[in-house]
Amino acid sequence: MAEMSQGPEGSFTQANEADLGAVYEAGFHVVPTLSEAEATSVLGRVREALEKGGGSILAEGAPKRITFSYRIERSIAGKREKYTEGYFTWIKFEASSQIIPALEDMLRSDREIIRFLLIHTVREVPTFAPRAVFASDRLEGETIQKKTTQEKGTGQVSEEELEKSLEALVQ
Questions:
Q1: For residues 40 and 87, what is the distance between their CA atoms, to the nearest angstrom?
Q2: Are 68 and 46 spatial neighbours (Cβ–Cβ below 8 Å)?
Q3: Looking at the domain covering 14-115, what would its CATH class be?
Q4: Is residue 65 a contact partner of residue 87, using CB atoms and an 8 Å limit?
């Protein structure tokens, strides 16, 4: 069932129930100059802002220090900052689409967040099949040797023998 709400300048907008409880996920990089506890407090600020806006947290990942695949640069107050590592963390939440612009502004203005990605996603938590570990006791501690081949007749071949073998192949 759709809900009607009054928008700016008296116009009415229609919102679906799915929009009122849409599921989002935000992943972001935190500056490496912080300790792990301080990086966790950045995640706490995001969680607090979401809950204040009426969102509910579904899952989150603790900040983990990583090395970036490439250097990330950003300009803050005319100064160029370059990062090759930082903390990665994420949070999955359910919220109304009306709080998303405010959340984006908050993430963009936080100086301790290098970069973020905010996506609309599904409620289910993906499950991953465990990777199979292959172990072999058969070769434990042994070095695999390359097989050597023995060459037959490494000596000189006479012209007569060569002619006979060629004729046998042609016939």
A1: 9
A2: no
A3: alpha beta
A4: yes
Q: Per-residue DSSP letters for 103-163?
A: HHHHHHH-TTEEEEEEEEE-SSPP--PPPP----STTTTPPPPPPP-PPS--S---HHHHH
> The whole model's pTM is what?
0.59
Question: Which amino acid is residue 42, in one-letter code?
Answer: V
Nearest to 91 by CA among 128, 42, 127, 129: 42
Return the domain boundaries, the chain: 14-115
Give the CA count within 13 Å in the CB-facing half-sphere of 54.
10
Closest C-alpha among 105, 114, 58, 66 to residue 88: 66
pLDDT tens digits in sequence order for the chain, 171 residues long:
344 343 444 333 334 444 457 999 999 999 999 999 999 999 999 999 999 989 999 999 999 999 999 999 988 888 899 999 999 999 999 999 899 999 999 999 999 999 999 999 888 766 666 766 655 556 566 666 777 766 665 667 788 888 888 888 887
